[in-house]
Amino acid sequence: MSHAWSWYVIALVLLNVAGCVWLLWWTARRRPGDPRPEDTSHVWDGDLTEYNKPLPKWWINLFYLTIVFGIGYLVWYPGFGNFAGASGWTSAGEHDADKARRDALLEETFRMYAGRPIDQLAADPQAREIGRSIFANTCAACHGSSAQGAPGYPNLTDDTWNWGGTPEQVLQSVLDGREGIMPPLGTVLTGIGGDVAVTQTAAYVRALRTADVSQTLRTDQMAAMGQKYFDSLCVACHGPQGHGNPDLGAPDLTARNSMYPSSLDGIRATIMQGRHGVMPAHRGLLGETRSRLAAAYVWSLSNPPDASASTAAP
């Protein structure tokens, strides 16, 4: 809040408090010429008389005490613009303290799962069920309730992992998050070979998903022309065969499943505009143990435990 708005709020609060004090004082005093409390001359139906009796003193004083309490409240808690209050209380601090208490309680509840390997948790039906609940509350908004993803959000039920699919890599993704950046290459490609270079590169990337890439390149001249652009600009991240690099989060371009549209126009859009995907870190939100349980559930979706592992005791 700027200083100008802060002073505006302070002035508004003081004006309202002063207005309440003046209203009480003005309405409680008797002025010369006022009728007596029992004589207002307002009579209806012969025996219904309106009186002008003032409020009892104790009632008026109670209103004054309420105003004093309100002023003290505004001084103790933040209520005067940017003034932090004499107590130093903030809603953010209250939230953080309450969250810390709740997190400690949850950590104690899930203590039996703390530090256990992801594959062991994935083989424990109870741990998987808890992880599924955590996933539904925290992750389903992006990845869907069935974890099959959406455009821009990966499918977690297949065997395609941009950042690696080992238990430790999945846990790291949940704990610390990921940030994948595909830079826009449209300007570079257009400068090298014109607008058709973008289409040729997109055709080559699409050809990488076919069963026989060499055969596709022999029959698709557009894709064959795009290979040279791919080799000069894209291999640094995606590799010479397009298999990607988990250390960089560069996706495997030969995989059938992708986060973004795999049509020629969709690939062109990716090349021209680039992509920026962010997986937020959940270490601070869920804590170590709950993140571990969620990661175990996610890992189990593409690595279902066998029957013997499913009956393992916690």
At a glance:
This protein is mainly alpha-helical.
| Structural class by helix and strand composition | mainly alpha
Number of helices: 15
Largest sheet: 2 strands, antiparallel
CATH class of the largest domain: Mainly Alpha
| Overall average residue pLDDT | 90
Number of domains: 3
CATH domain fold name of the largest domain: Cytochrome Bc1 Complex, Chain D, domain 2
Low-confidence stretches: 307-314
- The radius of gyration over CA amounts to 35 Å
Strand neighbour order, sheet with most strands? 1-2
Cα end-to-end separation: 52 Å
Number of strands: 4
Beta-strand portion reads 5-15%
CATH homologous superfamily assignment of the largest domain = Cytochrome c-like domain
Present the secondary structure layout.
Blueprint: H1 3-28, E1 42-44, E2 48-50, H2 57-76, H3 91-109, H4 118-122, H5 125-138, H6 140-143, H7 167-176, E3 178-182, H8 186-193, H9 195-207, H10 213-219, H11 221-233, H12 235-238, H13 264-273, E4 275-279, H14 283-302, H15 307-310
Antiparallel strand pairs: 1-2, 3-4
Tell me what you see in this structure:
The protein has 314 residues and is mainly alpha-helical. It folds into 3 domains: 87 residues, no CATH class; 108 residues, Cytochrome Bc1 Complex, Chain D, domain 2 (Orthogonal Bundle), CATH 1.10.760.10; 95 residues, Orthogonal Bundle (Cytochrome Bc1 Complex, Chain D, domain 2), CATH 1.10.760.10. Helices cover 56% and strands 5% of the residues. It is built from 15 helices and 4 strands. Strands 1-2 form a two-stranded antiparallel sheet. Strands 3-4 form a two-stranded antiparallel sheet. A hairpin with a 3-residue loop joins β1 and β2. α1 packs antiparallel against α2 and α7 packs antiparallel against α14. The protein starts with a helix and ends with a helix. The C terminus is likely disordered.
